[in-house]
Each structure stands twice: as C-alpha cells, then as structure tokens.
Amino acid sequence: MNCKDFQEVLNDFIDGLLSPEEKQKVETHLEACPVCREELERFRSLIAEARALPKSVSPARDLWPDILDRLEGGEEEISAEEKADSRAWWSRYGFLAAAAVLIAIITVFLATSFFMEREDPSLQFAEDGSIQVLPAATAPEDIVLAEAEYLTASEKLLQVLNERGDSLSPKTLAVVRQNIGLIDSAIGEIKGALEKDPANPQLNQLLLATYQRQLKLLKRATALPPRKPGRGTGFILRDSSNRL
Amino acid sequence: MKKLAILMTILTMIPITAWTQQEVSRLLDTTPDGTVEVQNLAGSVTIIGWERNQVEIQATLGEGVEELEIDPSEGAIEISVKPLPDVKMFGDTHLTIHVPLSSTLEVETVAADIDIKEVTGELELASVSGDITVGGSPESVEAECVSGDILLKGVRDGIEAASVSGNIILQGVRNDVEAENVSGKIHVIGDNLGSGEFEVVSGNLLFEGTLHPEGSLECECFSGTVEIRLPASISADFDIETFSGTIVNDFGVEATSKDSMVSGQELQFSTGSGDADISVETFSGTIRLIKI
Lengths: 244, 292
Fold this sequence. Notes:
The structure holds 2 protein chains of 2 kinds.
Chain A: H1 3-14, H2 20-32, H3 34-51, H4 63-81, H5 88-115, H6 140-163, H7 170-196, H8 201-222
Chain B: H1 2-22, E1 23-29, E2 35-50, E3 54-60, E4 65-73, E5 76-83, E6 93-100, E7 104-117, E8 122-127, E9 132-135, E10 140-145, E11 150-153, E12 157-162, E13 168-173, E14 175-181, E15 186-200, E16 205-221, E17 226-230, E18 236-242, E19 247-249, E20 256-257, E21 265-271, E22 276-282, E23 287-291
Parallel strand pairs in B: 2-5, 2-6, 2-7, 7-8, 7-9, 8-10, 9-11, 10-12, 11-13, 12-14, 13-15, 14-15, 15-16, 16-17, 16-22, 17-23, 18-22, 19-23
Antiparallel strand pairs in B: 1-3, 3-6, 4-5, 18-21, 20-21
C-alpha cells in the first residue's frame, strides 16, 4: 500500500468498514508513514469535533471561528507537505479534502443549531446530515444566523475556487459561476417570498435547501480535477463525497 | 552540396526514428479478477474484456510523452502515460488494452476518451474533457467528467455518473442508479427501474421508460426542464412540486397553486394501485409528465 492507496481507503478505515486483510495493510503502511499517520489523526480530530456537537441543545455560536482556524492551520500544513514529492497528490488536494470535511461539519452544525433544540417529532435527518423536514416554526433570527454561516462558508469555498487559478478551464469556471449565480437569484426570490410570509415552513425549508445546494455545488467545484496533469501519480481527483 | 546531402539525410531519418519510438506493445500474465489502472493525457483509452488471464497493451504514444510506464504487481497492473518535463502541449496517445473479463478497472484521463467494452468487474472512470462510453454488463460503474459526455449503453445496476457541462446518457438502467449534472443534460432510459436518483442544476432532465412495480424515481432540477415519459399503465404515487415553474400533466390531474408561493405549483396523485414512487422537484424549471 502506498499513500495514494491509503487516501482511497481512509474513510472506510475510519468507519471500520475494511476487511481484516485491508485493515492490516493500512496499519502496516501507517507504521511506516508519518505523513499518513498525521493525516489520519487530523481527520479523526475533525470527525470527533463534528460528533461532539450538541444534539439536544444549540451549539455555541463561536464554533465557526474554531473551524476557520483549523482550516487555516490545515493550509499551513499542506504547504509544508508540498516539499515532499512523494506526497504530491495529497499536497495538492489535501486542503480541498479538508474543505470537504469542513462542509460536512457545517452541515451537521447548521442542522443541529436549527432543529435539535426544538424537539419536533417530525424532524428527520438524512445520513449525510441534510435536512429532510423543517419544524413548523422557525425563528427569523435563526434564519439570519444560519444565512450568515452559509455565506461565510460560501466565501471560503469561493476563495478556494479562485486560488485554483487556471487549473480549471475558463469554460468550466464560467459554468460553475453561472450556476452559482442562478442559485443566488433563487435565494433572492425565496427571501422575497419570505418577506411576505416569514413563518412559512416550506419557504424556510426551501431557503435552507437552496443554501445547501449552493454549498454542494461549490464544494464539488473546488474538488474538480485539473485540466492539466502534474508529474507523478494520480492526476485526477476522485472524491464521491463531492457529489451534488 | 555535401552539407545539403547530410541535412537531407538527417531530416529523412527524424520521422522514422520518432515513429519507431511511439509504438508500444506488451503482453502480461495476470489474475482473472485483478485490477488494471490506466492513466492517459490526451487521445483515447479503449479497454476490452477477453477470456484470457492476460493483459495486452498496444499503444501509440503522442508528442510530448516521455514513456508508457507499465508497473505490474500482484493482482494489479498500472499503466500510465508519463509526460516529458515542462511540456505543455501533448499529442494524442492511443491505448488499446485487453483485460480479463472480470477485471476491476480504474481509468483516469485528462483529454482522452474512455471506451470500455465487455468488462464485468467494477469500473471507476474519470476524465476532464474526454468522453466516457461503457457497454456490456459491469458489476458497477462510477463515471465522472467535467466537460466530457458519459454514455452507458445497457449497463443496468450500480451506476454513479456525474458531470459538470457534459451530457449524461444512461440506456436501459435498472437498480441503484444515480446521476448528477450542472449545466449538461441527463437522459435516462429506464428498463423496469427499481431505484433512480437524478439531479441537475441548470441542465435538462429527461426520463423515459418503465418502472419496477415497487420502484422509486426521484428527480431534482433547479432551473432546467424535467420531462418524465411513462407508460399510460404506470401504477405509482406522484409527488410533484415547483417553486416558480409550471407543471404539465398528461395523466389527467391538474396542478394546483401553492399557498404563499409566488407562482409555484404542486401536484400529488396516484395511478393504479400506486406502488411505485415518483417525485419531481424544481425551483423554476418546467415539469412535464408525458404518457407514452
């Protein structure tokens, strides 16, 4: 097993889904590879943070700066890793993977902050943390708060997208930006409707779902494979967690 | 005169030398269900399943390519086109590879088309601007493009397809089928579809065909049109909704306006005993339910 193989099985390893033989291979690799060991610890730490979010009370509102700090810390780490040729794939895309984890955390965070406190029996969450049912009453101040969180996350992902420079073709970037604009317009329309009927649960649900869709599109766009190859193994990034 | 003769000789020899360097042919023994990984830049990758426990590679290397790296190991063979350092433009490299029928394939390209025929193992295929075409009956297919098209011909189960601006066409699909696109279209032909989830942002989505009696079809589209073409005899529960678009329904029930919405419509109805589930949701796109 090499580092690329490890990246591909990392999620399954953490989730305990590998066969005993596969698990053994991973453990053998980890014993010999400090970079992958460090990466594993970083992922475990992020996941632990997501799992530690409160399930019956609203989370502290200052969670976001911590996540930002972690993300920015991740950037520094990746820069250091870039010096190692054998880690070229992960060096280039580790930050994007961290961004993907960040989105998972944000999704859980937003879902938790919105609904868990309300004890609505009709509330359901999909396995990926997406919102299935909105409670009958959603306070306008919560919507405003959630909107601010979404906007911050969107800005961060847009920054990642812009930092990729010309690694994406102008046409692809145009398509992504055009579709982000479409979703922005839709958000404007929904908010217009909400001004007339602020307590409408369907509109609130639609607004949050539309924000989620925009984040998913941004997340996928930041992880798109580069149009030009680099030397070394693996010039295409595949990450099914980035699906819309 | 002598100098000219030498120059002419050199010029005559260059293409011959280059041509002889571009052809690669290898035959390797392997296991019947091993993994074959292929990476190419531009050109094409054609992989064909055959009933031998061997991998045969035939390649024509394009300009700007340093070598075709072939790395066999236990149960896996990696085939990779390596570019020359600092080269920005690449000529087409064409790879034709025969693999054991039940091989697992992992193919990645930048601008090379991927064409898979008669391979029954798991397929993971990714390209930036190349097209992906799969025929036959693989165990599962994950196909991802940025601007390339994805065409799965007769692949029935275990499909995950994603593109950004390319088109996705899935013919004869049945179970565990998922596709998503941004501005490209999704065209699905269902053959007794058991479960399918399709999602587009601004592209159009067309589903036509039959559903399993207890099948499930979920379609989401943001601003594009969704058209669902179903047999008149379909037995299903329909749950159709659009925020600001319109619903056209051939099955006889008219959509109603949504309360408190700007101009949205919704529609819930059943046909027959209503065993299958069909849900369609758009933001501003038109939804058409068509009888065939």
